[in-house]
Design goal:
40% of the residues lie in helices and 15% in strands. By secondary structure, the protein is α/β, with parallel strands linked by helices. A seven-stranded mixed β-sheet has the order 2-10-9-8-5-3-4, sandwiched between helices. A three-stranded antiparallel β-sheet has the order 11-14-13, with helices on one face. Strands 1-12 form a two-stranded parallel sheet. Strand 6 and strand 7 form a beta hairpin. Helix 2 crosses helix 9, helix 5 packs parallel to helix 6 and helix 10 packs parallel to helix 12. It is globular. It binds pyridoxal-5'-phosphate. Its cofactor is pyridoxal 5'-phosphate.
C-alpha cells in the first residue's frame, strides 16, 4: 500500500472575536513574541526570561512564594501538578465540587490513589464556610481543593474564611485560579493559599500552553516530607523546580516560545496595572449585564457571586442554543460558549477575559445577539 502525501494549505485561521470560556483574544505583541527566534532552553537569554516570568507571576499572584513558575502544559497540567505533588497514595483530599472543574480535580486525585471525599453544591452555587468546617472536622483531610472561578457555571467562590478554616484544621488549601488570575484579585499570601494553578488562555490572554503555579512554604514542606516518589515524572516539582531554580538542571525542554508569549502577556498585565485590570473586567461585566437585562436575558448565577470574566446567562425559552451560537460565529465571527454538564442547552457562557474584556466587544455582542434573536 502506498502512502499518499498531501501538501495542505498553510495555516490561515479566520478572525474571531473570542467571547467564550477561553481562549480569549491575544494581543498582537504576544503573537509577535511567540514568533521570536527560538533559543536553547539553557541559553542565558532564556534563563533570564524564566526569571522574569517567575518575577511577574509572583506580582500577579500577589505572593512572595519562591516556588512560582509556569508548568509546561495547559491549566489541567497545573491542576495535575498540584494534586500529584501534594498527595501520596492513601492521603485524603476533600474536593468542593460545584461544577466541572471541581469534579476534574477529584478525578485527578482518585487516579493517583488518594482517598477522595467530595462535597457538592448545585452548579451555579458556592460553598459556605460552615459546610467546609463541617467536612474538615469529619474527614480531617491533608488537602482541601476548591475552584475560585468555576468556568462551567460562572460562580465566584470567596476564599479567605475558608482558608482560615482549612488551616485551623491543619490542612493545605489548593485553589483552581485558571479563570480568575489576571481578571479579579487572587491574593495568594493575604488569603494564605498553599497551592494554586492557573492557565494562560483566560484573563492572561496568551494562547493555551502553560500553567502558572505557586506553592507556599507550607506546601513545599509537605512535598519535601513525601515518603513516595511523585507518580508523574513530567510534573514532579522536585525536579521541575531545580530547572527553574538556581541549579538549572535539565529536566524537560521548556516550551521556549510559549514562555516568550507568556512573558509579553504578563508585561501587558503589569503595564495596565492590576487594579485597573480588575476594574476594567468589572465595568465590562456590568455593561454586558445591563445590556442583556434590557433584552430580557437574566444571569444564571446570583448577583453576589457572579464572575466578572465569565457571564453565564439563561437561554430564553424557545431559543435554539446551538443555532444562535452558530449564527453568532458565522455572521459575526463571535465565539461564545454553551453550557457544560447539566447546564448544556440551558446557559450561554459569555467570556470577557483579558484582551476580550472590552466595551467594544460588549456592544458588538449585544448588537449581534439582537440580530440573531430577531
Ligand atoms: N480549571 C478551570 C476553572 C478551567 O476553566 C479550565 C479550563 O477551562 C481548567 C481548569 C482546565 O484548563 P485547560 O483546559 O487549559 O487544561
Amino acid at each position: 500500500m502506498t502512502i499518499e502525501h498531501h501538501l495542505h494549505p498553510p495555516i490561515a485561521p479566520p478572525r474571531r472575536t473570542l467571547m467564550g470560556p477561553g481562549p480569549s483574544d491575544v494581543a498582537a505583541s504576544v503573537l509577535a513574541a511567540l514568533g521570536a527566534p527560538t533559543v536553547g532552553h539553557l541559553d542565558p537569554y532564556f534563563l533570564k526570561v524564566m526569571d522574569e516570568v517567575q518575577d511577574m507571576l509572583r506580582t500577579i499572584f500577589h505572593t512572595t512564594n519562591e516556588l512560582t513558575l509556569a508548568v509546561s502544559g495547559t491549566g489541567s497540567a497545573g491542576m495535575e501538578a498540584c494534586v500529584v505533588n501534594l498527595l501520596e497514595p492513601g492521603d485524603k483530599i476533600v474536593v468542593c465540587t460545584n461544577g466541572v472543574f471541581g469534579a476534574r480535580m477529584a478525578d485527578v486525585a482518585g487516579r493517583i490513589g488518594a482517598e477522595v471525599v467530595q462535597i457538592h453544591r448545585p452548579f451555579g452555587e458556592v460553598f459556605s464556610v460552615e459546610e467546609v468546617i463541617d467536612v474538615l472536622q469529619k474527614e480531617k483531610p491533608k488537602v482541601l481543593g476548591i475552584v475560585h472561578a468555576e468556568t462551567s457555571t460562572g460562580a465566584a467562590q470567596s476564599l479567605k474564611e475558608i482558608s482560615e478554616a482549612v488551616h485551623e484544621a491543619d490542612a493545605l488549601l489548593l485553589v483552581d485560579c485558571v479563570t480568575s488570575l489576571g481578571g479579579m484579585p487572587v491574593k495568594i499570601d493575604e488569603w494564605d493559599i498553599d497551592a494554586a494553578y492557573s492557565g494562560t488562555q483566560k484573563c492572561l490572554s496568551c494562547p493555551p500552553g502553560l500553567s502558572p503555579v505557586t506553592f507556599s512554604s507550607r506546601a513545599v514542606a509537605a512535598m519535601d516530607a513525601r515518603k513516595t516518589k511523585v507518580s508523574s515524572w513530567y510534573l514532579d516539582m522536585s525536579m521541575v523546580r531545580s530547572y527553574w531554580g538556581d541549579s538549572r538542571a535539565y529536566h524537560h525542554t521548556a516550551p521556549i516560545n510559549m514562555n516568550f508569549g507568556l512573558h509579553q502577556a504578563l508585561r501587558l498585565v503589569l503595564e495596565e496595572g492590576m487594579e485597573n485590570r480588575y476594574s476594567r473586567h468589572y465595568a465590562n461585566h456590568c455593561a454586558l449585564k445591563t445590556g442583556l437585562n434590557a433584552i430580557g436575558i437574566e444571569f444564571a448565577v446570583a448577583e453576589d457571586h457572579q464572575l466578572p470574566m465569565l457571564n453565564a446567562v439563561n437561554i430564553p425559552d424557545g431559543v435554539d442554543d446551538a443555532a444562535i451560537r452558530g449564527q453568532l460565529l458565522k455572521r459575526f465571527g463571535i465565539e461564545i460558549g454553551g453550557g457544560l454538564g447539566p447546564l448544556k442547552g440551558k446557559t450561554w457562557r459569555i467570556g470577557l477575559m483579558g484582551e476580550s474584556s472590552q466595551s467594544t466587544h460588549v456592544l458588538l455582542f449585544l448588537a449581534a445577539l439582537e440580530q440573531c434573536l430577531l
